[in-house]
Protein: Sulfurtransferase
Amino acid sequence: MSEKITPADAIRLLDAGRAVAVDVREPDEFAVGHIPGAKLLPLGSVLARAAEVLPEKDAAWLIYCRTGRRSADAVQKLESLGYTNLYDLGGILSWPYEIEGDFEGHF
Structure:
């Protein structure tokens, strides 16, 4: 089961160590800027690499991309693989908290 989550609720889970962010953008997008501690699992690799990158199917995973379109697609794919505790965080463009990477003020 998945649900939408706000950045405010997501940061509380992340800060408490109760969830891990998962970036489903491409590696070059991830390098520009991502949520600190996020795992990279590009959308095109979800079905092939989910078990490797996200080994615990019942852990809390916060799925995000740039605007929210790919995160919704990734959540559906992960659900089909048996993941049970997914949160669709939407896009990093609406993330008001710290971002790490090589960005220069833009995505």
In short: The two ends are 30 Å apart (CA to CA). The chain has one domain: 2-94. DSSP finds four helices and five strands in the chain. Helices lie at 7-15, 27-32, 46-53, 69-80.
